[in-house]
Amino acid sequence: MKLRLRSIETKETLRIEVPTPCSLLHLKEVISQRIAASSSSSSIHLSLNRKDELLGSSSEDTVQSLGVTSGDLIFYTINPNCFSSETLMVQSQTPQESKISQDILPLEPNSQKEQPLDVNTQQEETLNLESGSEIEPAIENMYVDDGGSVVEVGKSFSVPCFLRKVFAKEVGDSDGRDHKLLVIAVHAVLIESGFVGFDAVSKMIVPGFHLPDEWPSSAFTISLWYTLPEIVVDGCYAVNGVETILLKFQSLGKFLNIYGSLAKNGSGLYRVSLDENRLVPFLNYVWANCDSVNEMNGNEWCSGAYAEREVFEFWKIVKDRIALPLLIDLCDRAGLAPPPCFMRVPTDLKLKILESLPGVDIAKVGCVCSEMRYLSSNDDLWKKKFVEKFGNAEGSQGGSHWKEKFAKSWESRKRRKMVEIMIAFQQC
């Protein structure tokens, strides 16, 4: 397996080849031998996105189990505080372990109560293809704390909450009216897809973008530039300038038209048209209410769930029709490896693939990356999984999100089976 390793401090890129499978410890040892500075493998920290550290339950976990594939760019540093340690951990399973191993999906730090969703990986659900009957495991483990919810999906892992964070950063205390929220929402899709803002005048990456203080109430046109961190770090702009993409926003009546293309000699032009009158109320709702999902009563939650579906639909359209096509074009122009094949699949098709998986496996898929985490938290998807597993949705237990209801029902059934086992054991 071939990998690219880039130092956070020096920006130097190493190209290595490691065996498949390769443990996390072995990869760190290879890096410690290649870098000039004398450092032990234990002092090396790795990340795929320059934010979250690659961690496992043990040093023997393979990098493949942590989401690393051949051709990936991995960032490394000896600074222990460079990456966030609040990352997704996959707990390994070895033949010597006598207890049931578990994959733990931790809540993000903004949750008030961090309660894990534990998934049984030793005795997984299997499907008898010949008879079509489901083989139940002897013990199913989907841990629920009696004092609270299993996973605050709408709060921790959803697209609306990612938008909420971007809104808080870019909008601040302003009113958010006059097209601002919709433009910033499109910007959030680009940022989540891996792009970074770029100043076409200073030729430098900018952490955000500066919108006009006063926006015209009628038609307007603005342009925003984006690039990829790998392009600037690799110095691809030394001769021909930084390879960038250009987004043009054009307001015509109640519609906001968005045109995207490569900034220089771009052959492909991508366009979406968004209805501001329809979308802005939902974006305002997400901005105002994402931090208070648990405080909603039943009627308010209905409007919240509807707003989340509308925002997800907006996200899917911009992602599939603007962000991913431009990402593919820009990687090709800059000579970078294309995005992973599965990520290039349209969102509707990715959801269809997830629909074919059991609920437990969907929870595991959410550990792969941020996009899959957002995708696997889709409420309609979990409602289907609930009906498939437990039947009538009308009899669902408490919880504002269908993933939460699924986990609670899973735990209740597990407890009933444990009671049945204990009764049968006492009767023997």
UniProtKB/TrEMBL annotation:
<dbReference type="InterPro" id="IPR001810">
    <property type="entry name" value="F-box_dom"/>
</dbReference>
<dbReference type="Pfam" id="PF12937">
    <property type="entry name" value="F-box-like"/>
</dbReference>
<protein>
    <recommendedName>
        <fullName>F-box domain-containing protein</fullName>
    </recommendedName>
</protein>
<feature type="domain" description="F-box">
    <location>
        <begin position="339"/>
        <end position="385"/>
    </location>
</feature>
<dbReference type="InterPro" id="IPR036047">
    <property type="entry name" value="F-box-like_dom_sf"/>
</dbReference>
